[in-house]
Design brief:
The chain is α+β, with helices and mostly antiparallel strands and 622 residues long. It folds into 3 domains: 3-260, BirA Bifunctional Protein, domain 2; 268-457; 463-621, Threonyl-trna Synthetase, Chain A, domain 2 (Threonyl-tRNA Synthetase, Chain A, domain 2). The chain is built from 17 helices and 16 strands. Bound molecules: serine. Serine (SER) binds next to strand 8 and strand 9.
């Protein structure tokens, strides 16, 4: 079965007359209005406000296919199933159906629509811990569906609990999650293409990572929210959050454990083979998989407006492209591959032609004029030259050790194996353990530094963060009151300690303007204005001059937060009348405080330029 067949069947299955789901448009890969995260890393992420109880404009049953990006998996790419970019098929019950329907429907989809043989499917359920009981209900449901008892496995929080932040102890206050039930496909222990063979003489199980089993779907029962005292509280609304990787389900339908052999990757792999004059076999597989995944992810990120830089999303994009250049270099030992990059790009766009804003051109040469392609090429070109210089430098080093090898790896992207092989020719063995320990030290550091942000999991919906969110809306409108309508949000980042707001404006603000902005915000807070959420047709929102970023380009109805309805319309804000009498009217998924009075006093700490025509304000609640 092709990936397009599976994507189509899944949406049709859940939108049919029995299941009655509504299909929603996927969210952008870079969330435009969610300051807590860098990337959309799961299908549920754009739905958090609705899982928390807000009314979704499309109802209680939602389905979609969501492009996702997981930066934290970057080092995992290279085996048969891990990627940074993937498409997640998702369906949700927002306080509607629960375990029984979900497990039955997914089973039916896999066995009757995708026609996977039942005996090849294994499932897992949550075994329970001190605070949440074993999921006996799911166990019984699977048994009643005909799953043999020796195909049902029980695991603890590490495997069968899902929240964006991981296990319950890692969930921040306000984060939602719950026990889950996964389905695995068994590629069979006889097959010769398993890449690790540890399982051969040991007892393998669905969650063993030898490559025999592949997880193809995860039904999360989102029914808990983390409390300030560390406990988990039952949500009033019990939700289902299902996600399944399209790449993996396609691999299962082909009974082939390598997702890079599905139609979502094979055309890219073929071009990489041509470009490098190497075959996709043996030790070439891993670098080719990295290239295919990373350039695909880069093409999607660039399509969403990211450009390589040293910060946030741009930094990740840069890393993807540099790692790809290194792997090409490793395979070819020259830079001829750059001349063929167009074909790689063309192969990627051809796979997704007409989907997610991707469009192929007639032939690969016509991308030459396209700026997105140029971004990829220029970054790889620059870096490959640096890499070639690095080869020169490394040759000068007399005695290589694990620490220097790590520096080369970290700063120039030199693969450890390449350094090892250079020096082996000189008769030197590098201390691999030293390299590994440097690597781990760095990994731990960057994990701590970027925890949450890169994971897509800050999900900090704590009380104070919500206050900052509403304060940001007030700031946005106050800036427009003081500086005029050329002010428009360019970025926003909120933590529980401060807000950071980027906006278009072409000069430094004067002290008076800063003071006036601050005064307006604090006045609006003192007035204790009511904050309302509305779901209205998109045309109506535009008509009312709602500001903010249009998160969902294709939605018919949108979510708007409105602050301070004033019927008298004698307020300071001159264009309040045009906003239907609201002081602030902004596209947003929330959450927000109910009344501005709870926010406290807002103080602007800093106003500075961050690039030409873009200013940044940092403010705190004091
Ligand atoms: N949120 C779950 C996941 O990402 C299921 O959608 O796996």
């Amino acid at each position: 079965m092709t990936s397009s067949d599976i994507r189509k069947k899944y949406i049709e299955f859940f939108t049919d007359q029995i299941r009655k789901h509504k299909e929603i448009a996927p969210a952008p890969l870079v969330p435009e209005n969610d300051p807590t995260t860098l990337f959309t890393s799961s299908g549920m992420q754009p739905l958090v406000p609705y899982l928390l109880g807000q009314t979704h404009p499309e109802g209680k049953r939602i389905v979609d296919s969501q492009p996702c990006f997981r930066a934290e998996d970057i080092e995992e790419v290279g085996d048969n199933r891990h990627t940074t970019f993937f498409e997640m098929l998702g369906n949700w019950s927002l306080g509607d159906y629960f375990k029984e329907d979900q497990l039955k429907w997914f089973w039916e989809f896999l066995t009757e629509e995708v026609k996977l043989p039942k005996e090849k499917l294994y499932v897992s359920i949550f075994e329970g811990d001190d605070s949440v009981p074993e999921d006996k209900e799911s166990y019984e449901i699977w048994k009643n569906l005909g799953v043999a008892e020796d195909h049902i496995y029980k695991y603890g929080v590490k495997k069968n609990w899902w929240s964006r932040s991981g296990t319950p102890d890692k969930m921040p206050v306000g984060e939602i999650g719950g026990p889950d039930s996964e389905v695995f496909y068994d590629f069979g222990k006889e097959l010769s293409f398993h890449e690790k063979s540890d399982w051969k003489n040991e007892s393998c199980h669905p969650n063993c990572d030898c490559g025999r089993f592949m997880e193809i779907g995860n039904s999360v029962f989102i029914q808990y929210i983390k409390q300030a005292d560390g406990s988990l509280k039952e949500l009033d609304q019990k939700n289902v959050d299902f996600g399944g990787g399209l790449e993996r389900i396609t691999a299962a339908s082909l009974n082939h454990p390598d997702i890079f052999q599905t139609d979502l990757y094979l055309p890219i792999i073929r071009i990489i083979e041509q470009t490098t004059s190497k075959k996709y076999e043996g030790e070439n597989k891993s670098p080719m998989r990295v290239i295919a995944d990373h350039i695909k992810a880069a093409a999607f990120l660039i399509n969403d407006g990211v450009i390589p830089s040293n910060k946030l999303q741009g930094y990740i994009l840069r890393r993807l492209l540099r790692r790809s250049a290194t792997k090409f270099y490793q395979l070819t030992k020259d830079m001829k591959f750059l001349g063929e990059m167009l074909k790689v790009y063309h192969a990627i766009l051809s796979i997704y032609d007409g989907l997610y804003g991707m469009e192929k051109r007639e032939n690969s040469d016509s991308y030459l004029l396209e700026k997105n392609y140029k971004i990829i090429f220029d970054e790889m070109d620059k870096f490959s030259k640096a890499l070639a210089r690095g080869f020169h430098e490394i040759d000068k080093i007399e005695k290589m050790d694990g620490k220097i090898a790590f520096d080369f790896y970290q700063n120039l992207g030199f693969p450890y194996e390449v350094t090892e092989e250079l020096f082996r020719q000189k008769g030197q063995e590098i201390d691999r353990e030293q390299f590994k320990s440097e690597f781990e030290k760095h990994r731990e550091l960057s994990r701590t530094a970027s925890a949450g942000m890169f994971k897509g999991g800050l999900a900090d919906h704590s009380e104070v963060t919500i206050k900052y969110h509403t304060a940001t809306h007030l700031l946005h409108q106050a800036l427009r009151d003081v500086l005029g309508e050329s002010v428009f949000q360019k970025g926003s980042n909120i933590t529980s300690e401060r807000l950071r707001f980027d906006f278009s404006f072409d000069r430094k603000m004067t002290d008076e303007e800063i003071k006036e902005t601050e005064e307006i915000i604090n006045k609006k807070i003192e007035e204790d204005l009511k904050v309302d959420r509305m779901i209205i047709p998109i045309e109506k929102a535009r008509e009312m001059n709602a500001i903010g970023l249009f998160n969902d380009k294709y939605a018919k109805e949108v979510s708007i937060y409105a602050i301070g309805l004033d019927f008298k319309l004698d307020s300071d804000s001159k264009d309040q009348r045009s906003r239907g009498g609201y002081y602030s009217l902004e596209f947003c998924g929330g959450p927000h405080v109910e009344h501005t009075g709870v926010i406290g006093r807002v103080k602007i700490m800093k106003e500075e330029a961050i690039s030409s025509g873009i200013r940044r304000i940092r403010a705190q609640i004091v």
